[in-house]
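Protein modeling request. Please complete all fields; requests missing the sequence field cannot be processed.
Requester role: graduate student
Desired output: 3D structure, token encoding
Chains: 1
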Amino acid sequence: MKPPISRLISMPEGKTLEFKRDISSPKNIIKTLVAFANTAGGRLMIGVEDGTKEIIGVPNPLDEEERLSSIIADHIAPRLVPNVELMTVEGKTLLGVEVYPSSSRPHWVKNEGHLDGVYVRLGSTNRKADRELIAELQRSSSGSSFDEMPMSDLSSADLDIDVAKKRFKGVRELNEEELITLKLLSREQGRLVPTTGAMLLFGKQRDFHFPDAWIQCGRFKGKDKAFIFDHTEIYEDLPGSVESVMLFLKKHAFRSADFSEIRRKDVWSIPLTILREALVNAIVHADYSQRGAPIRVSFFDDRIEIENPGILLPGMTIDDIKQGVSRIRNRVIARVFRELDIIEQWGSGFRRILKDAEELGLPQPEIIEIGMRMWFIVYLAEAIEVPTESYLAKEEPGVQSPTQSPTQSPTQSPTQSDNPILKLVLSLQDREKSSGELRDILNIKHRPTFRDNYLHPALDEELIEMTIPEKPSSRLQKYRLTDKGKIFLAKEVAKHDQ
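Delivered output (498 residues):
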């Protein structure tokens, strides 16, 4: 239902609303209408001062209506036919333009061309779309999704079928027919090739094909990113990454026992159910065609932020999400998550989050669209300050400290043979090696364990360094000893000889 004009004028400018004093700057008006058509539609009100909301009206309204219609027809492609109407408010005539989400997107400004003249609406501003976003607009218009696209230069051998079978154990037998049904494999020119979604889910070299398809987690001290206390990078398959992120969050939370019922139940200081739902949504709805940054999970003293690349799908607004409207960006990934019971029910996620937050007495979570990314912010009931090292030594079962190996006690000396940092340094004493080579030498198959307990502590101590520090996620990345690491190794060897 459309709000009345009086209420509309009182509203702030945003994704679907803009005010203009007049049409003396038609270029900006054209960009706004193009952005509305490419995003979620919107209304442009002419004759209202956008800063003060003073109703000015338009002179010669019939002439201005005809002029505006001509500008739209002459400067937008493909042809856009919005609803242009005159309306009277406080005795003055306004010119209103209503644009609906277009099925012919992407639209563009003619004199800028179909590559440079495409705009989308972000908040109350118009932003020029890059090639990846233009392609996303085309796919959404045609009804296809990025993760359904076949990767014709690859073969089924590029999928880690063993990992996929492990995830689907007890759910499906992943034979060839099932892989096709799930759209993990697609027939292309007489042979089976993996889809983009399959490579994102279970690709052997996912980081090579999609260098930003990983998750970065950080625990920050305070309420901003001035000081990072702990961090980890999660590169495992997408279904497995959910639990790895949750383990990281649990490591920096605490729990207490509730004996109010017959059985004890643990009460966590962070809303795990809400965070898991938000994390799954971020993974399923991320725009993996975008380049630049991974999914990020940031734990502050008073809140936890989950951000993912990609703006809302065309036609969607944040209000739609709050009302339970759901549109799937990545159909293959969503189908797999649904089969694995990681997603419970389509479209119910945010409403369930709001309900859980209300029951827990938490502030309402926020969804924000900034730049080319979506932010989901969960506020905590009480601030949680960064714990001391002595607290971290008391790990929850199954949650390891970043400087503690799976078999090491917190009281053990760092120079003992089962010290993870020493093991890593010893593995690099002859030459530089990749993370895969190091994991093979150390016989560690679980990447998060290797990164959290071996690699990152050694990097933090500056005992080792990256060979390509400007590209931390490069597939060509290797590690070598620093001068400090060589001195450390020599001292350890000397102690052993004594």
